[in-house]
Amino acid sequence: MGQQQLLLVILVTIIVGIATVVAINTFGSAADSANIDAVRQDVASIASSAQGYFMKPAMLGGGSRDFSNFTFDGVAVPGEIQDEGTDLIISNENGTYEITSRSTDEIEITASPSSSVDYTPGETGTDDDLVATIEPNELNFNS
Questions:
Q1: Where is this region: Disordered (predicted)?
Q2: What's the sign of the alpha-carbon dihedral 13, 14, 16, 21?
Q3: Using CA atoms, how far apart are residues 136 and 60, in angstroms rounded to an integer?
């Protein structure tokens, strides 16, 4: 009888250990997914501000139907500007966002989630980068 109880205790310990490992992995995956969702939400917020800038007349601080001078300076996006000279890179706890291309009718933003393995705060260029194209009436994620 003692051996059966000992085997039962060992079996329960192994099962609890396996369940703990599975729970930790599941939590890690959920945290990564939540971070990517937060980055997408930040990009949507940037897109909203950029589209407002596009529509606003220049005399009111807007772009007068032109994205080519859009920067993160003065935009309602939470974060800290990383490149004070050009104001094209901003970082917050979710990730780093860089304006990689600007033209009259669109902006391209590269977003690097902070949950990426090769993430460095203030820099884009990770394996998990999201690229978004913002147009006057559209937001498209390219990856």
A1: 110-129
A2: positive
A3: 18
